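stuck on this chain:
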Amino acid sequence: MDRRKFIQASSLLGLGVGLGADSLAFSGNIPAGRRVGMIGLDTSHSIEFVKALNAKDAGNAFDGYTITIAYPYGSRDIESSYSRIEGYTKTVREFGVKIAASIDEVIAGSDVIMLETNDGKLHLEQALPVFKSGKRIFIDKPVAARYQDVVKIFKASQQYKTPFFSASSLRYVENLAAIRNGSLVGKVLGAETYSPAVLEPSHTDLYWYGIHGVEMLFTAMGTGCATVSRIHVPDTDVAVGAWKDGRLGTFRGTRTGRHKYGGIAFGENGNIHISEYSGYKPMLLEIIKFFNTGIVPVDPGETLEIYAFMEAADESKKQGGRPVALQPYLDMIK
C-alpha cells in the first residue's frame, strides 16, 4: 500500500498521528522469532490455522511460523462456540501446541498473536494486553460484537502503537483483487455478493456471519459508501449500499438453502462472477506478511467502513429499511 492511501486512512480515522504509514510500520519490534500464540479455541478457524502452520509438510510455505501456545477461552455463553473448546483443545495438543492458563502466558510465550475467539464480545478485553505488549496481532472476524468496541480497538491500537489486522478469508478469493484493480472488467460500476448470514443476538446482526459477504462487497467496490438500506425477513437480509460516486453495491445474506459464497461484479467492460471460496491459505499468507513487516495489508479506513456499513444496516432494519448514513459512525473514531 502506498503512502497516499495510508494518509487517507489516517485522515478518516482522525486519531492524532493516526494509523499512518509510519505508525503501522514501526509499531512493535521485528518479531524475535516465529512463535505464534493463539487466543481462543472455540472456532473452526483455530483448528484450520494450526493444521496449516504446524503441518509436518508445511516447509517454508508460511516462513517458518508455527503456533506454539494457545489459551482455549473462548466464549463462555454462546453454545455453538463454548461446546467446541474441549475437543479443539485436544486437537491442537496433538499438533504440539502448549495449552496456556492465561492470555498473559500466551503473550510471554510467543512473538506474534492470533486472536481467534469466536465471540466478538471478548475481543476488546483480550486484545488490550496484546496491544500493550507491542506484539503484532491478527484479530479474526468480527473485530468486535458492537461498533463501539470496534472503535475502542482501533483507538487502542493507535494508543499503544501496535498494529492489528482483521479480515474475512473471503476477501482473498481468487479473482477479487483483479476485479478491484480493473484488470478484468475495467472500472467496477457495481457489485452484488452473497453469503450465509446466521444471526447471534449478542452481536450486530451481520457481524456474526454476514461479514463474509459484506467484506467481498467492499473488496470489489472499495470505500466511499454513503448510505445503506436493509430489508430483513426471517430467512434473508438484503443490504443495499449507495456509494458517494453514484454506484450501488448489494449484499444478500441467507439463512436457508445451501451455504454458499459468491457474487458478481458489473464493470465498464463487462460483468464477471466472483470466484468461489478457495480456503484459508491466501489469507494466512497475508497474515504472515503482516507479522513480518507490521504493515497492515488492508487499509484501516476500509475495515472501519465495513463495520460502519453493518452497524448502519442494523439501524436501517430498526427504521423499516430507510437509508442510514455511514458518516456518523465513521465520525465516532475522532
